[in-house]
Amino acid sequence: MSRARIRLATAVLASTLAALVLPASAHATAAPGAGVGALQPYRYHAGVQPIAQIPLQGAVNVRDVGGYYTYTGGQVRKGLVYRADALSKLTAADISAVGALGLKKVVDFRIPMEVQYDGADKLPAGLTATSRPVSDLGLYGTLVGAISSGDPVKQEQMLGGGRAEAYMRDIYRTFVTSPENRVQFATTLREIADGKQGPLLYHCTSGKDRTGWMSYVLLRALAVPEATAEGDYLASNTFRAAYDAQVRAGLKQSGRMQNPDLLIPLQEVRQDYLDSATAQLEADFGGFYGYLTDGLGLDLRTLAKLQDKLVR
Length: 312
Prior knowledge:
The chain is built from 14 helices and 6 strands.
């Protein structure tokens, strides 16, 4: 059996065992230096997982996905996969900083309407984004319509009373149920696994929902503990908080929204949004491994390649 397949088999076994014995709230990290396959020595520490943000002026949620420890005692390599919000407002200094990452591919999960309104990515010379739209169930259009109406009654009817939260949960379910969406995520994972593919960045508009789900799936496929992957997902609230508050203040000041707090459920990531997607994959595919193999169509060779390329 190849080294990559051994690592994959160990990761699947370790993840399965840990899911049975660890409390759901634990933020788990494998102790550095633990040997592959040694299931007992791992120590789990709350709140110590690294998050490597790439500070930019024109984007606030750009991060290296690497650095996390896995159940198997490995660590996700840095410098290979990045996640981001839209790159359409990058400054010249930002573009230089992005150029220093050595990216070979940028994947844009935004739908055409988002690109039309927000603009195409600004990237270093020689790099062009690959459009790979993932459906938002019309959320962006709904949001534009609600704000542009300037009608507080209409805005309340569209977004208030828990409707915004329900909309978000529906969107997350379609990450799992939509064959088209699954193809986009699966294609990106295959490219990440490709040993000939250099550093890759994927993003959507806010870098939190479609990008958040993509990152959650990737980290769990690498045997990063579930609670750690959830922590990476929820960290978008920290990185986006100040910017999103400025957006709400601007809408109120301009008179376009009397109650811009209606937007908060759409601006934030929440555990119950993520839970909607994971509950859906349990219902449709019997669990995370079934989602990877049956839902995304990833074979064991591809999963082994992910492990071999991204975990050291």
